[in-house]
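User: quick one, sequence for these tokens?
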């Protein structure tokens, strides 16, 4: 059991979207923009009942054009969701200051990544519109030697009581293993299979990412 001296020292968390810029601070490897998505709830509750898997790659302008076409053809009554996704793409473009991205919007009914892990990328944006959000580990909770050995969560996590979870609708940017001179964030997907749960997940990567659709 680890004694916490500076809780959540590796995290930048605020209800101001500007907090996402703090992902570039050397001491931070996760930034969380806490927000309400009340106007979207009725709409996304309907969307999650559909089987959605949409991928796009390119500049923000190219992805925007592709998203507009996709929503016009497949989700014509869900413009508020489209506007929110485009807004988050714009925010990610500002944070990363690059011009090439990959975007995934998908309904998920599996546990995906059960093990706490780091992504092989520089930064990644996530927003879980429906269902439980991503779990992540404060630095104080991690046995890094166990992680490097490929051990399971029971050895990687020193103190399960301080594991954090992003709230539904919040926007998170995760620092990955390709970010220069950084300690990447350890995180995992929530468990949903056991109770038949569903998630509606938005994921945006830079094109520096390698494990894009896992």
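Assistant:
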């Amino acid at each position: 059991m680890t004694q916490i001296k500076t809780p959540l020292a590796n995290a930048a968390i605020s209800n101001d979207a500007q907090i996402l810029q703090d992902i570039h601070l050397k001491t931070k490897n996760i930034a969380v923009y806490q927000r309400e998505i009340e106007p979207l709830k009725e709409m996304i509750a309907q969307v999650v009942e559909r089987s959605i898997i949409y991928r796009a790659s390119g500049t923000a302008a190219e992805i925007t054009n592709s998203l507009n076409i996709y929503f016009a053809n497949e989700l014509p009554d869900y413009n508020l969701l489209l506007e929110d996704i485009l807004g988050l793409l714009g925010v990610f473009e500002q944070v990363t200051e690059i011009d090439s991205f990959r975007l995934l919007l998908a309904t998920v009914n599996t546990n995906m990544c059960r093990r706490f892990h780091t992504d092989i990328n520089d930064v990644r944006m996530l927003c879980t519109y429906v269902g439980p959000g991503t779990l992540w580990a404060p630095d104080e909770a991690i046995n890094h030697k166990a992680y490097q050995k490929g051990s399971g969560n029971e050895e990687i996590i020193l103190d399960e009581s301080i594991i954090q979870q992003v709230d539904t609708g919040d926007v998170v940017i995760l620092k990955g293993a390709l970010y220069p001179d950084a300690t990447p964030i350890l995180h995992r997907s929530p468990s949903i299979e056991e109770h038949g749960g569903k998630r509606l997940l938005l994921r945006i990567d830079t094109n520096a990412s390698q494990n894009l659709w896992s």
